[in-house]
Specification:
heterotrimer, A mainly alpha (about 325), B alpha/beta (about 550), C mainly alpha (about 270), A: mainly alpha, globular, C: about 270 residues, mainly alpha, MetI-like fold
Amino acid sequence: MVRYALNRLISLAISLLIASVAIFLVVEVAPGDPASYMLGINAQPDTVAALRTELGLDVSKPERYLTWVSGMLGGDFGTSYTYRAPVAQMIADRLWVSLPLAIYALTLSTLIAFPAGLFAASRRGRAGDMAVMGATQLGVAIPNFWFAMMLVLVFSITLRWFGAGGFPGWDAGLGAGLKALTLPAVALALPQAAILARVMRSALIDILGEDFMRTARAKGLSRRQALWRHGVRNALIPVLTIIGLQFSFLLAGAIIIEQVFFLPGLGRLVFQSITQRDLIVVESVVMLLVFAVIVVNFAVDLAYAAADPRLRTRT
Amino acid sequence: MTLLSVAALSVSIHDTPILKDVSLSVAPGQIVALTGESGSGKSMTALAVMRLLPEGAEAQGRIALAGADLMARTEAQMCAVRGNDIGMIFQEPMTALNPVMTIGDQVAETILVHGAMGRAQARDRARAVLARVGLPEDRFPLSLYPHQLSGGQRQRVVIAMAIALRPKLLIADEPTTALDVTTQAQILDLLKGLVAEEGMGLMMITHDLAVVAGMADQIVVMRHGAVVEQGPARAVLSAPAQAYTRALLEASGHRANLPEAAPQGALLQVRGVSRDYRTPRKRLFGPHGTVRAVKDVSFEIQKGERVGLVGESGCGKSTLTRALLGLEPVQAGQILLDGQPVYAHGHPNLAVRRKIQVVFQDPYGSFNPRHRVARLITEPFHLLESPPTGAARERAIAEALTAVGLQPDDAGKYIHAFSGGQRQRIAIARALIIRPELIVFDEAVSALDVRVRAQILDLMADLSRQYGLTYLFISHDLSVVRTITDRVMVMRAGEIVEAGPTEQVFDTPSHWYTKALIAAAPRLPEGIGGSDAARPAL
Amino acid sequence: MRRSLALGAALTALVLAGGLLSFVWTPHAVDGMAIADRLKPPSAAHWLGTDHFGRDILSMIMVGARTSIAVALVAVGIGMGLGVPLGLAAAAHKGGWLDEVISRGNDLIFAFPSLVIAILITAVFGAGAVNAIVAIGIFNVPVFARLTRGAALSLWEREFVLAARVAGKGRLRISAEHILPNVANLLIVQGTIQFSLGILAEAGLSYVGLGAQPPVPSWGRMLADAQTMVALAPHVALMPGLAIVLTVLGLNLLGDGLRDALDPRLRRRRP
């Protein structure tokens, strides 16, 4: 088990290394010099050069890469070109919106998908199954940002249950914060829940056909008992994979959803930085998101081992 | 007094009749064997008794356990019967256990689900039952997971689960078909012992009449969902009343009439061959481990000889086959065909490869489902420098199909139009079409029903007579190897432990392992079955 | 289920037909403004109403379909064109360095949050349909490579492939002759799914301004434009959204239906 975890940890480190190089290279080839962009077309060459020195743009590329990476390892993400503020602080502020949103959505999606998938699988081919499958088919097809707009239309504009957007900050209280995140989280969660429910259902149905389910029935377990005791844990393995993947979708989805609800999260930060060519911020946020996804996948790998004893003894 | 009585049982799935008017009974302490070819409905009968028929199946008739009507029970009442009054064992031990649950928990579950005792007592009982089936706790802790056990050990766990509550009736559906012959003998002994000691009734489903002969008190022969014949095992086996039973018996002990071998010089020479496999790295950048699957194997096959290679699963015979076919390189030694290496300079040697062809086990997986028979069987033409075209190609196809007992116009059909036996004929046609010097039969009749198997063996004998075939026949089934080869090699753990003329090896084996194999193989009693009853059928 | 196949095919055909028709005819011109007609609800003259510039929404949707289809189709083409050969090659050299490199590469790309990287690419190289295609296409490559490799690996173990090897055929020839035709069904099904995901992704990128740029109409941007007017004229936001939903739904149903129809169920249980 320890060896398995170590193995995964090494590949995690390698993934991060390659990811950081890839992101750095992509941003490096970006057309346009941030310094001249910031100072405008009419800037004096020596002013631009001074700013380049200040921003650390005048050293060689490998050096800049090393500075960037070693800075990140120490929690220093550099200084924003436009705001002249530490990127780490900017990201930290926004993370307090984006991360709770992603977790809120993942929780909702899992809470909806598990019972739905279980219900559909246990009523395979019957009306209940058809209804759930029809709903998920629709859920998969809905773009989450459009769904968000429709939620706003119904629950904010028509019913006035929620605000149409914005975020009061956690200082306004946990309830107010959560309330502001509820519509965005639902918009993010439902399409994902549809996917997850489908995966859950098909994983369970595959397992219902396994020989050991028949063995369980021959022992005297009822259909329901067999499904719960033997089906669910085995179905967890493919489901965990999807949950891991979904985290990455949720992070990306959150970037777009934040636009719909005017939430001051990482997404808005990224888009502001893009329009201002504040590439150090873009670079760092993307790296952070990649880091989060890779770490979540690492956690999923560990969860696999917990769910599947075959992985523990094999190395 | 009867324990289980099935009367006029009929089952249909979506209006297709599966079982027709099946009646049988099992007494306490009695072993009743249900036998027949695939599709005869024997497994369906067992599932009907368990009331675990697939969805959409409808059953009619009477099934009574110790006088109580099972057909009238509700599903909830049946759950109380299953595992408690009736235990069941399945064919595939590799998949019959939940991979993510310990064996102790799985055995205890049978006890707990019936509320028979508390958690601690259930664990004690699980421990005792596992010990009873030959898995004592000191060597097989309850905390093991199924993947840590071999196939035979897993089957013991399945049996432990089935007998944990001392059911009155045990149903075993092909319990040893997936196991090696020595393991099979042990499991059959275990089942016999359980019946004798606990006084259970055992309904055992098997296609293997030799197993039936060694186990059963009563025998029920089924075909197309109906009972053909039933009665005391000894009586039915020694004097079958029905032609179908006779045909099955004859096919089970069938001996092909192989022409005398006329060896004429070495064809295949295998010299000191070893084959290693890489095992996954233990650490990310650590070295690969290696497993030596074939160890320093040497033998020769003469032109015109028919040689058998027997061994249990994992003995290295498949690995050796791949090396012989030039599909994989070897780590040491040489494989020469007609004096030339089959694998040279990192590539299979095509000039040699056209001299060797193969027939595989699986009649369903051996053909690309998207091609027609003509294209399928002419694939080896690829090996020829100037493959026949036009009329010559047509002629070759027609000749190959005719040789294996099919029609020339079968060439235009897709493979799914053919039965398992016919597919094996097509596989032989494919191997024959370029007239190779050597054919490798890799478990080529193992997936077939006995009567089809007998026909294919006869076909091989005919072809030997007609074309003077040289072949290597690889099988785990000793009785088949005995009838279709002149010489046999016994393989164990990557080594050939014994080799010699077939009759001599079978009659007077010298290596302990050969002796164990022959002793373990179930056999029909003397004088039963076979076209040549004077020779002792294995 | 034949019904889902028929419904999916019908919806897909409808969208394709609408897109193609828009090359020669739309109910109204999409480049002219008619401020007098702005934000009109659906009517006989404008079946789906008009937007804030008074343009006919149905016409916009028809023209927008071209963008969605083109972007998604090319992205699937990139994914298949690169992914399938890579997957076939990896399976043919199972365990070799090529397999290792391809599989690790796949894992790595999978570890990236795709839309985030798409945003990065369009941010750095500029917004536009071409960059959107590249960004979406890159993430289709490992999808097809993995699918192909997985299916091909099990085929390589099948006896008919062994028979072909015994017949002296090389890896390339076996891949083309035996492996590819037998994974084609899977690829078609996955293709429709990736196509629908591509449409969703393109809509998302256009919505945040990183996809197709004006004046090229696209569904995502129609929604972005509509956002501030949701309260005033809900149909402006509703209609393009429904177009996306029906297109994606149609493709998914088509994929499901094809999977059922193409599965030959040749894998019979052995006795």
